[in-house]
Amino acid sequence: MDDIKVTLSALEQLKGQVDAIVDIEFSKTGRMLSELMADVLAIEKRELHENANKLRSLATELTNIEKKEFSFMKVFGIENNELAHSSFLAWLLDPLGNHGLGSQFVEKIICKVASKTKNFDFSLLDFSNLCVDKEISGDESRLDIRIRDPLDSFICIIENKILSQEGVDQTNRLYRDFHGISASELFVFLTLDRTVKPRNSNFISLAYEEVLPILKSLLENASSADTRFLIKNYLNTLERLIMSEKFECFSERTKLYYQYQKYIDEVNKAFNQDRELLLSALEDEIQHRSWWDSKVWKIERTGGDVTVWKDTWYPSEHAGVYIQLYLHKSEPAFSLYVYGEPSEFSSKFGPTFKRFSDEKYSGKSACGFSKTFAKGVSRFIEKTIPLSLTEKNQVQKILESLDDMIETFEKIIEKSMEEFKK
Question: Could you tell me the residue range of the domain that residue 297 belongs to?
Fold first, then answer.
């Protein structure tokens, strides 16, 4: 009996010691967790501050690069516009143009092209008397730039390609239209990519890369400050567009990317996460709208958009009309579109949809939605919704616009589809 009492007493003492140790360990663990949390918060705060500073530095450096790379064509959004390039070149080619360079550019261009062929003698050509015009139509084609002398003894046809490919039988049609008009003739195929060749063998290939040094030489001779400004900025445009055959060094923007890659990736990651959350919320909420009926409506989410449609809007398996909800990456905005696919179907269905839409809503808009019917465009109706980065009702805002779109155009689409199917 005494042994049992001794054992129980020892166990009571052990329990007390264990409890004391546990209390101490809990206390230590609590303090450690508190310290860890404080450290984590401090690290997050410091990293957020560092990221903000880094991104501000990045914005400053990008602004400085933009200033150095300034281009009037980039400002106006026409860097890839062939007509804009043709207009600028035609202006420089004109000996009587107000650029003050006389016939310097046209002479150097023609000499450059003539050096590529043995069948042309320009020794008697009066460059100062040449006429330059553009967008001239023939029986089968429309040329970009034409250079000729007043007596039509010489003609030079320039087909200009920036990013587009040669059209169907295009150089052959141009040659048929304008060959034989003058005793001396040059047909020029001007492209960004020197590897692209014209289908008609009578055209002489000229790369923009070959035009660059000629343009640079004009800077030295231009007496007008305005002319120098325009040529210099056009050179900035060309140098960005031309794909150099020989890589010399990384651009300043690439260097910035490597320097700020971590922060750029973090920002992209945050955007993609927010976009997924927004699209997921929209996908879920759409199926709870008053007009939604899973027996007739379909929904699909892919990439940066959510698509809804009715089976009746698709006259065949791969052709029909749908509504797309799309989140922009370049700005805080969301767009709603009524689309037709593929383009062959859209070009046939579009006029029918436009007729019924115009009967219901005249003009270029309907209940806040823009009607964008245009040849070759598959987007019929659109509305862009600016998003606030701080408001909390973004989903509701988008859904209300979707409700309005369906209320406005659902019956018109179905009526148009019935007519189209006939």
Answer: 272-421
- Per the structure block, which two tokens stand in for 362? 């005249």
pLDDT digits (tens, 9 = 90+) for 230-247: 888 888 888 877 754 445
CA distances from 46 to 32, 58, 60, 265, 296 (A): 21, 18, 21, 18, 53
User: Is residue 171 domain-shared with residue 213, that is, in the same domain?
Assistant: yes
Instruction: Say how far apart CA 87 and CA 77 lie, in whole Å.
Output: 15
**Are 341 and 228 part of one and the same domain?**
no
Is residue 306 over pLDDT 90? yes
210-229 tens-digit pLDDT:
999 999 998 888 888 888 88
Mean pLDDT within 303-318: 89
Residue 105: exposure state from Cβ atoms within 10 A (0-12, 13-18, ≥19)? buried
- At 258, the pLDDT band (50, 70, 90 cuts) reads confident
Give the whole-angstrom CA distance, residue 294 versus residue 288.
Answer: 10
Domain count, the chain: 3
Read off the DSSP letter of residue 394: H
Is the peptide bond preceding residue 213 cis, with omega within 30 degrees of 0?
no
Q: Answer yes or no: do 232 and 294 share one domain.
A: no
Q: Based on the fold, state whether residues 291 and 386 are members of the same structural domain.
A: yes
Q: Helix, strand or coil for residue 411?
A: helix
pLDDT at 244: 46
Helix residue spans in 242-326 (DSSP H): 252-286
Residues 335/385, Cβ–Cβ less than 8 Å: yes
